[in-house]
Amino acid sequence: MCGIVGFTGHQAAAPLLLEGLKRLEYRGYDSAGIAVIDGDTINVAKVSGRIANLCEKTHDGADTPGSTGIGHTRWATHGAPTDLNAHPHLSNDGKFAIVHNGIIENYAELREELIAKGYTFLSETDTEVVVHLIEMYYKGDLKAAVMKTTSRLEGSYALGIVCTDDPETLFVAREHGPLILGIGVGENYFSSDVTALVSYTKNVIYLDDGEFAELSPDNVTVYDCAGRAVEKKISRITWNVEAAEKGGYEHFMLKEIMEEPGAVKAALAPRIHGSDLKLDDFELTAEQLRDVRRIVITACGSAYYAGCAGKFAIESLCRIPVTVELASELRYADPIIDEHTLLIVLSQSGETADTIAAMKECKRLGAKTIAIVNVVGSTIANLADHTLYTWAGPEIAVATTKGYTTQLAVLYVFALYAARRLGTIDEQTYSALLADLHSLPKKMQQTIDMNHALPELAEKIRDRQSLFYIGRNTDWAVSLEGALKMKEISYIHTEAYAAGELKHGTIALIDDGQPVIAICCNDRLMDKSISNVVEVKARGAKVIAVTFRGDTRAVAQADDVIFVPKVDPLFSAALAILPLQMLAYYVAIANGCDIDKPKNLAKSVTVE
Ligand code: AGP
User: Fold this and answer.
1) Which of the residues 265, 368, 566, 603 is marked catalytic?
2) Which domain holds residue 359?
3) Is-contact 105 96, C-beta < 8 A?
C-alpha cells in the first residue's frame, strides 16, 4: 500500500505535492519522491525514508520548479526501500514519469519482454514495467498509450502519469486501488485518499475500477474502460483538514480514541428512527432474511475481531448461524458459499487486498454481500450489493480504534434490525436492547471519563515480556482485539485466550507475577469468568480485571480493576475495548514507541 498524489495548476506543484504526501504517510513511509515538469524536462527527486527526508532534499520543493507534478510515498513490496526503488519512475526517453499504488502481478514476464526490446531498468520494482510500456506504445496519444499499457497489466494499480508532450496534463488510471480526483478552480488534483486533498478542495470524484482520467488546470475528463468520456458525480467532503489533524492531541491514536463516543453516535444516529431501525438505502425483508441459511463475516486484523464480537449479537438475536472467517484464509478455502449465504465484509479502509479477494470469491459463489466500511467510495464499498458506512471520519493512526468500535455499532444495528424483522425477539427484548444500543455513545464517554488511572496501570506492566488476555464469549472477542492493540503499538508479546480453554495447556505458562487481563463483562458467564480469575491467581498471576461498575465479584479477586458502565453483554465489547485501547496506548508511550506509525505496519494493507 502506497500513497500517490498529483497536481496541475498555475502555482508551484512541488510544495503542494510534499504537503499531500505528508497526509498520506500513514499509507506507507519507507521512501518517497516527486516528479515535476519544468519546460520539456521532468525533474525527479526521490529518497528512502520519510517524507521529511524528501522535503530536506528538495528544500521543501524549491529545487523542483514547475506547476504540474506527481508524488509518491511507498510501503515496499517489490524491491527494498532505496532511492532507486522509490517512485516516481522515468521512461528511458525521459518523456514520462509514473507513480503507482498496487501490485503488477505479471511484471516479471513484462520486464523480460521489455528488456529483450532494449529497455533499461534502473529499479527492482514492478512499477517500472508500466512506464516503459507507455513509452513503447506512445505514438503521440497518451490516453491510447495508457489504455494499451493497462490492457497488458494483471494485478492492482492506481497510476499517476505525466508526459513532457502535455506539460500541463496529469493522466490517471485505476484498477483495484483507491484513486480520487480533487476538483479545484484553475487547478486540479489526484490522490489515494481525500485526506491529501481536503486542504485544497472539498469537491472530489471517486474513480471506479477500469476508469481513466485526464486532468489539466481547467478541465477534468473521466473515461470508461473503453476510453469513452463519462459523467461522474462530484462528491462533497463533509469534514475539514482539522478533522484529519491531531486536534490538539499528542497522537492521532489518542485523538481517535477520544472521538469514539462521537463516532459511534455518528454510526448509530442515521439508523435509529425513534423505535425503529433502518439500514440506510436498502431494506431486508423477513422473507429475504429467512432465505439466508448462514452468515459469513470476513475481514482481517481488528476488523476480523470486530466480526468475532458481532457474531454473538447476530446469532443470539437472529438465530442464523454465523461464522467469522479470516479473509486471507477464506479466499483460498474452497468455501461452502451459495446464494443462501449472506457475506458481511468489515473493513475500515475498504482497500484491504485479502478482504477484497475473499469478497470477490464469495460473490462468484453466489453470496449476497453487505460491506461495513469507513472510507466512502472505497473498493469494498463499491463491490458490495449494499454498503453500510461506519461514518467514523478519517482514521489516521495505523492502529484502529474508532474504526473497530463503529464496526461493532453497525453490526449491532444489523443484528437488532434483522431480529425484529425475523420476529426472533419479542418487542420487550427489542426495546430493551434498542435502549442499550442508544446508550452506547454516552456510556463510552463515561468509560473514558472514569478511567484516569490507566497510565499508572501501564507502568506496572510496561516492562513485561508477555501479557495474557482472557475472556469468555463476547469477552473473549474483546480479549482478541485488546491483545492485538497492545502487540501492535507497544511491541509486547500478548496472547488472547478463551478463559475456559486455559486449563487445557496454556495455564502452564502462568507463573508468579504474570500479568493477566481478564475481561469480565458478561453477566451470564460472570461466575465462570471469576473462576478463571481465581484459577490464574492460584498460579501467581497478577490480574487486571475489566468489569461492570458496581459489580463486586471481580473486585474481590483481581489485583487491579477497570470499570465500565453496565450494558447488555451482547453490546459490552464496545465499552470493554476502550480501556484496553488506552492501556496499550499508555504502555507504548511509557516505552517510547512510535504510536501512530508502528514499525513494520501500514494503515491499509492493499497487498497480499
Ligand atoms: C488494526 O489496528 C490493524 N492496523 C489491522 O489489523 C487492520 O485492522 C487490518 O489490516 C484490516 O484493515 P481494514 O479494516 O482497513 O480492512
Assistant:
1) 603
2) 252-449
3) no
